[in-house]
Design a protein that fits this description.
Length: 184
Amino acid sequence: MKRIDVIKKIVDNVDKELIVCNIGIPSKELYSVKDRERNFYMLGSMGLASSIGLGLALNIKEKVVVIDGDGSILMNLGSLSTIGYLKPKNLILVIIDNSSYGSTGNQKTHTAKNTNLKRVAEACGLCAVEVDNIDNFEEVFKCALKRDETFVIIAKTIPYNEPCEDINIPPVVIKYRFMKAIHP
Ligand SMILES: Cc1ncc(C[n+]2csc(CCOP(=O)(O)OP(=O)(O)O)c2C)c(N)n1
């Protein structure tokens, strides 16, 4: 399974849900699969997609889907602990675990050896499921969309970056159109 396969399945299954996407190639892949006003491409701040998604989920009724990476979650593990403490009912955290810092050249992360993010999430009090094939991912994601609780999905993928174009929208426009989509 590749990161872009997971992103395609997320896009196939969302409607009004908000998506906050991790820095780097994940955001480019999401943009190339389907650009939407309800996508927030988090262009600058590694590690903060989950924190931004948490803040959003606490302040709106719509479902928030965060697409994060193992490298970014490892950089801000405290975010998982805070999410486990606050547990908004409308947050789905999809951690695409390619065991690498894919966007900067697939350098290995610690999930390649000693760190199990499902167990970390569970230890933070969260409901977490690990999947390693695309059919299981879709099944679990559909189920998470219907649930009334914070749900973490660890999608184990191979380290692979789909060649795709740069995001052709200025960051400030990404921000304002996203805000307008939430509060027209
Ligand atoms: C504080 C900080 N350190 C390093 C970077 C460089 N950087 C950008 S994306 C990235 C890798 C992110 O890895 P991961 O979250 O696992 O996502 P992947 O690209 O593998 O899908 C790195 C190291 C950065 N932008 N900010």
